[in-house]
């Protein structure tokens, strides 16, 4: 048994641990989620050899966002809407600056220059700009009108439906109608023999089992964080912007860094940027719609600071990726911006 599976076994044992100390529980579940996420990152990286970098990146982003979606649902059920909103913005910022920064830096140290498919990057950033437009429109309506909270919530649900529709259309565009534009540099090797199919099925089973384990740990972690916030009067926004994105996206973060180190920069970008797209165009709308059925009004209105920080993250990442190549110094720049944003958020929250 490898070390990774030993650590996963430890994570399973951690599920049954429940100490009388809230802080201890939070630390235990936070640590327990890491090895499971890392193993998921490795599994999705291997899976990309069979399904291609585009589909592999989408798979990694989806699995990586699954615990965050679950944590968001549990948080809404506990009434922690500010933390959910901050976590969603924090995920975008974390993916676009921290994850991409580390990936580019590590990849750039090992490989002097890394090239990627500019068509993929441009299409992805178009979808991110759509998400930013939705945030700006909703913030403008909230700032320059006297609409009630109920009406703003109704508008948020309608906007959420539109964004989900566009996200689905984006998947159809990239995976089916124009998939030829997204496989220019992948060079997928066809795997057709029985041994490869058997290995692929085993990987799928492992991914499902690890995802279930991640879901259980996420629920326990969210409950512990809720108790921690109530007991020590901590800022939900700061926890949401820093802790939740890092823990919830640990799997995809590790996947992106591993892929960049292996010079699979296309998949690395697809994981990080694709995750931000999924958060903004799918996970956020789903949580808003879900809040309606929970009797909690979570609208699509974010603070001006959150919108500005998201805009900076998307803009800086765009400037880094517009030329189709990356270097380690560009990764250092993204990490520096992330550090400044988190420091600012610490004092603001």
Short description:
With 349 residues, the protein is an all-alpha fold. The protein is built from 12 helices and 2 strands.
Helix-strand layout with pairing:
Blueprint: H1 3-15, H2 22-51, H3 53-77, H4 81-110, E1 114-115, H5 118-143, H6 149-177, H7 194-232, H8 236-248, H9 250-261, H10 265-294, H11 304-321, E2 325-326, H12 328-348
Antiparallel strand pairs: 1-2
Helix pairs in contact: 1-2, 2-3, 2-7, 2-9, 3-4, 3-7, 3-8, 3-9, 3-10, 4-8, 4-9, 4-10, 4-11, 4-12, 5-6, 5-10, 5-11, 6-10, 9-10, 11-12
Protein model, in words:
Helix 5 packs parallel to helix 10, helix 6 packs antiparallel against helix 10 and helix 11 packs antiparallel against helix 12. With 349 residues, the chain is mainly α. The protein has one domain: Up-down Bundle (A middle domain of Talin 1), CATH 1.20.1420. The chain starts with a helix and ends with a helix. 82% of the residues lie in helices and 1% in strands. The protein has twelve helices and two strands. About 3% of the residues have low confidence. Strands 1-2 form a two-stranded antiparallel sheet. Belongs to the Ca(2+):cation antiporter (CaCA) (TC 2.A.19) family. Ca(+)/H(+) antiporter that extrudes calcium in exchange for external protons. It is found in: Endomembrane system.
């Amino acid at each position: 048994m490898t070390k990774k599976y030993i650590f996963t076994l430890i994570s399973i044992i951690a599920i049954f641990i429940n100490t009388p100390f809230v802080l201890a529980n939070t630390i235990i579940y936070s640590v327990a989620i890491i090895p499971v996420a890392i193993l998921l990152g490795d599994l999705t990286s291997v899976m990309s050899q069979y399904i291609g970098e585009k589909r592999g990146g989408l798979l990694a982003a989806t699995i990586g966002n699954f615990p965050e979606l679950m944590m968001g649902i549990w948080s809404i059920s506990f009434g922690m809407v500010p933390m959910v909103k901050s976590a969603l913005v924090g995920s975008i910022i974390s993916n676009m600056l921290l994850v991409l920064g580390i990936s580019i830096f590590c990849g750039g140290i090992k490989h002097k220059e890394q090239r990627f498919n500019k068509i993929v990057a441009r299409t992805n950033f178009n979808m991110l700009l759509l998400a930013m437009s939705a945030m700006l429109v909703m913030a403008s309506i909230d700032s320059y009108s006297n609409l009630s909270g109920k009406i703003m919530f109704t508008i948020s649900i309608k906007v959420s439906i539109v964004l989900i529709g566009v996200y689905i259309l984006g998947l159809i565009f990239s995976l089916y109608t124009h998939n030829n534009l997204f496989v220019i540099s992948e060079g997928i090797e066809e795997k057709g023999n029985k041994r490869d199919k058997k290995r692929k099925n085993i990987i799928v089973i492992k991914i499902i089992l690890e995802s279930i384990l991640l879901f259980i740990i996420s629920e326990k972690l969210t409950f512990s964080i809720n108790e921690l916030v109530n007991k020590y009067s901590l800022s939900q926004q700061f926890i949401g912007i820093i802790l939740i994105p890092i823990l919830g996206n640990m799997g995809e973060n590790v996947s992106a860094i591993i892929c960049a180190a292996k010079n699979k920069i296309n998949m690395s970008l697809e994981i990080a940027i694709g995750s931000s797209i999924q958060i903004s165009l799918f996970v956020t709308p789903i949580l808003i719609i879900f809040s309606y059925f929970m009797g909690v009004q979570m609208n699509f209105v974010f603070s001006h600071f959150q919108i500005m920080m998201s805009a900076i993250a998307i803009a800086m990442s765009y400037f880094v990726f517009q030329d189709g190549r990356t270097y380690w110094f560009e990764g250092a720049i993204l990490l520096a911006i992330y550090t400044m944003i988190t420091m600012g958020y610490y004092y603001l929250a």
